[in-house]
Structures are given as C-alpha cells and as structure tokens.
Amino acid sequence: MKQAVHIIRKAHLEKEHVQTLRLELDYELSSLFDAMQNQDEKQRKKSIERLTEIHSELSALHAL
User: Fold this and answer.
1) What is the pLDDT along the chain (64 residues), one digit of tens a residue?
2) Which residues form the domain of 14?
3) Of 20, 47, 21, 23, nearest to 34 (Cα)?
C-alpha cells in the first residue's frame, strides 16, 4: 500500500512540475518577444537560454 501511495504522490508532483514549467515557458516566450521588439540582445539571449533549459527539463520528464 505504501508503494502505491508513493507512486501516486510522485506522479502528482511530476504533473505539478510540468504545469510550472509550462507557466515558465509562457513567461520566457513573452520575455523573448519583448526583447525582440525592443532589440534587447542581452535579454534575448537570456530568454533563449532559459527556454532551452525548460525544453530539456520537459524532454527529460516526458522520457520517463
């Protein structure tokens, strides 16, 4: 029974993590758009780096 509860909790936490990453993804896409509109190269690079990190995290979670 403990194992079943542990598996359910783990699945729930992973689902919450994916939802958080999706919110971060939306925020970074918005930041990237703003940086492109303002021709802010520093922010553009920062947003792209974070988007890459989020993509890696999501890929790792979906591979499980």
Assistant:
1) 888 887 888 888 888 999 999 999 999 999 999 999 999 999 999 999 999 999 999 998 887 6
2) 2-63
3) 47
| pLDDT in the model for residue 64 | 66
Tokens of 42: 């520093």
> What is the rounded CA–CA span in Å between residue 4 and residue 18?
21
Alpha-carbon gap, residue 53 to 39, rounded angstroms: 22
Number of domains the chain is built from:
1
Over the range 6-42, which residues count as b (16 or more CB within 10 Å of their CB) and which as e? eeeeeeeeeeeeeeebeebbeebeebbeebeeeeeee
Report pTM: 0.79
